[in-house]
Design a protein that fits this description.
The chain is an alpha/beta fold and 452 residues long. The chain has 12 helices and 21 strands. Helix 7 packs parallel to helix 8 and helix 8 packs parallel to helix 10. 45% of the residues are buried. The model has no long low-confidence stretch (mean pLDDT 93). The structure holds S-adenosylmethionine (SAM) and iron/sulfur cluster.
């Protein structure tokens, strides 16, 4: 561990899991920049490697241990002069086990303690022993993270809420991220302004339960997500807003109406439903029915007819019968998704469903295959339906080939056009000419930077 030359420290961060981890990794780099750490693309020769982990499914934590084995070899090759830190939800949930299984790890830090990284690193240097910090401090890390942050680009993430009080039967989040906590609106607005000054034009607000947001407003009152979105939309230069991940029970009428009244808010919503069977939704402790989800989708389509949806599904939760799975398939066919994520249920230690009788792996696999085939058909149909349309695209930079510019549609689909310049940060009308499975090709129509 080289402490002598603070200007030349190389930091490599590996990020697993959700967008909130991507945001946290960027903020950890911001915290470490004043100590002389700058990001490098590879762990070879790095002074510090952070593995920012995800605990949501079993394979996620297994991936951590195999990656750690490779880092141990690099650390040995560097004569031990490489600090290895594990952060994120695996650190929070399995910190002690992790240090037993991988004693060469120097630092284990839970998601609420990232602002303490400099102090924790100093402790490792002083003690030459592994250090673990998985406390849930009373003050949130947001009160302590530095104001100065490296630019994220035209499209950026901003965490506004963390934790979850809902305790779904299958989920580790309430245990690894703690209770629901919302940042004060003023600090979010200030961070958004800084991002826009650095060139950001689209912000995705992040939270494990983002639409449960209830933060203190600058007027001293409680602000909900709709109120916050409306205040953010007033920032000059900020053209697009999104928010993820939402829970159906927190889709209030004021938030639904924001999709009608707030022009910066994109007509695209990630709304996980998990199952189409009320029996399974009850077993999951979701506290909403399949019809509640149908009503929310219908209401959003009523106020914003071009609204499109994505969702998450869990297949094979304990107790799921063929009839329950058929109800999920029916809901999927009826709703029509632009995109959706689906997973086999993975028992997570310490969660209520892990102790129940499990569904056979072959049954889960067959159901997941059928669901994913339908979701793929829907995604292809959604993309194909854009061919021939003229739609605003926010450009983020050059395409992969010379003479191309790349950007995002209203529905976050990657779009590529031939263009003389990168058009970075500008919005232009594009006529979509071709749909690939995960991107669209188009022709630039307007040469003028327009409002979305
Ligand atoms: N808060 C969001 C909600 O209420 O749906 C979800 C957040 S969770 C981090 C992301 C997704 O991971 C969930 O929507 C769920 O589909 C999936 N997931 C969570 N626990 C899981 C488990 N034990 N097995 C399989 N998938 C799981
Ligand atoms: Fe996990 Fe989302 Fe349920 Fe909270 S609401 S327990 S984050 S799935």
């Amino acid at each position: 561990m080289n402490e002598t030359d603070p200007k030349r420290r190389k930091l490599h961060i590996v990020t697993h899991g959700c967008q909130m981890n991507v945001y946290d990794s960027a903020r950890m780099a911001d915290v470490l920049a004043p100590l002389g750490y700058s990001a490098v693309d590879s762990p070879e020769g790095a002074d510090m490697v952070i593995m920012n982990t995800c605990h949501i499914r079993e394979r996620a934590s297994e991936k951590v241990f195999s990656a750690l084995g490779r880092l141990r070899d690099l650390k040995n090759a560097a004569g031990g002069e490489m600090m290895i830190a594990v952060t994120g939800c695996v650190a929070q949930a399995e910190g002690d086990i992790l240090l037993k299984r991988a004693p060469y790890v120097d630092l284990v830090v839970g998601p609420q303690a990232y602002h303490r990284l400099p102090e924790l690193i100093a402790r490792v240097h002083r003690s030459r022993q592994s250090v673990i910090d998985t406390e849930f401090p009373a003050e949130t890390k947001f009160d302590h993270l530095p104001d100065q942050a490296a630019p994220q680009g035209v499209i950026a993430n901003l965490t506004i809420q963390e934790g979850c009080d809902k305790f779904c039967s299958f989920c580790v989040v309430p245990y690894t991220r703690g209770a629901e906590a919302s940042r004060p609106a003023a600090s979010i607005i200030a961070e958004a302004r800084r991002m826009v000054a650095q060139g950001t034009r689209e912000i995705a607000l992040l939270g494990q339960n983002v639409n449960a947001y209830h933060g203190e407003g600058p007027d001293g009152r409680d602000w909900d997500l709709a109120r916050l979105l409306n205040a953010l939309a007033e920032i000059e230069g900020l053209r697009r807003l999104r928010y993820t991940t939402s829970h159906p029970n927190d889709m209030t009428e004021s938030l639904i109406l924001a999709h009608r009244d707030n022009p910066a808010l994109m007509p695209f919503l990630h709304l996980p439903v998990q199952s189409g069977s009320d029996k399974i939704l009850t077993a999951m402790n979701r506290k909403h029915t399949a019809d509640d989800f149908r009503r929310i989708v219908a209401r959003l389509r009523e106020v914003r007819p071009d609204m499109a949806f994505t969702s998450d599904f869990i297949i094979g939760h304990p107790g799921e019968t063929d009839a329950d799975f058929a109800a999920t398939m029916a809901l999927v066919r009826e709703t029509g998704f632009a995109l959706a994520y689906s997973f086999n249920y993975s028992p997570r230690p310490g969660t209520p469903a892990a102790g129940l009788k499990q569904i056979e792996a072959a049954v889960k696999d067959a159901r997941l295959y059928e669901l994913q085939a339908e979701l793929r058909r829907q995604q292809d149909a959604f993309n194909a339906a854009t061919v021939g349309l003229t739609t605003p695209v926010l450009f983020t930079g050059r395409g992969r080939h010379p003479g191309q510019a790349a950007g995002r549609s209203l529905y976050a689909q990657p779009v590529v056009v031939d263009a003389p310049a990168a058009l970075t940060g500008e919005i232009h009308e594009v006529n979509i000419t071709h749909a690939n499975p995960n991107s669209l090709l188009g022709r630039l129509i307007s040469k003028e930077n327009i409002a979305a």
